[in-house]
Structures are given as structure tokens and as C-alpha cells.
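Student: Please help interpret what follows.
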Amino acid sequence: MLVRIASNSSAQGPAWWPALLETPRLTLGPVTAEDLPSIERLWRDERVRRFLGGPVTEDKIAVRHRRLPGTPGAFAVKDRPKAQLVGMVTIEPDSPRGGTEVSYTFLPEWWGRGLGREAVAAAVEWALDLPGGNPVVAVTQSANTGSRRLPEAIGMVAGAEVVEYGEPQTVYRLRSPAHMRQKSNT
């Protein structure tokens, strides 16, 4: 179940941002400077980055620190009881991959609890209402079976396989908006 708390027009960004989403166990909101120490762990952790080209370099981390807070579509995902960061979900409308792209990373200590599925399902449901009506897509390295289970669990289907960064990637597409909404209501 997704509860939309807010989505306000901003002179500095698109009308659909910022947004705050709540699920039974999570809150998804704009990334803030206070989130960066935990998000930096996502960029440095070898387990998280295993299928993403390895840990991020210091130079790139410095750039991300400047650019990420407030970026439209970048959600910090936090557990509701303690407001601890568990991961990040990004929604990119007009992705070069031919739709609205959802991407996600979660800290290892939160893996295996269904929180990734809950967060990504909420973000995708929210993305279905964005202007333009683009199809929702996700891309994950084909060898990353754990990451591949997540889009499949929310009703996305594997389509084309492409090679990026020297590795096969599977492109997922949402079956239909109605299918996504039906799954999120169960």
C-alpha cells in the first residue's frame, strides 16, 4: 500500500518533485545532505557494488555529494520506526533506455526482508502518475540474480538483453500499469 504524502511544485525543479511516499514499513523522500554518510556506504560497499562496477572512486563520491541532495527522482529509503536509511531508489523519467527508469541499491544489513520490493513497488506506482505516461523500465546485470528477482516480484518482465560496461544487462518492462497497481494492493 502506497500513501502519497506530498508532491509540490518547485521553482527549481519539475512540478512532480519533491515527493514523499510512505509504505507500511518505509518512508521514501528526497535525498538530503544528512543522508549522504549512509548513502556513501552504498557507493563504497563491495557487496552492493559487486555488479555495479565496484566501489565508487573518491573523485566521483565528491561530485555525488555536491549533486545528489535534492535531485528530482532520487529517494532516500528509510525504515519508519527508526528513520534509518536502508537504501536508495531513483526514478528517471525520459531515461535513454526508452522509458521511466527505476534503479535501486540497498545496504546489505537490510537485504532479505522484502524492503527492496516494498520500496521499488512504491516508487514505480508513483512513477506511473508522472507526466508523459512513459513505460517503466529497470536494468540489472544479468548475473545479479538477487537484483533480478526484485523487478520480477513487482510484475516487471525481462525483455531485451544488452551489453553495457562489458557485461550482459537485462532490461525489464512493467507488464501494465493495471498489473502494478493490482500487485501493490495485495
About this structure: The chain has a mean pLDDT of 88.
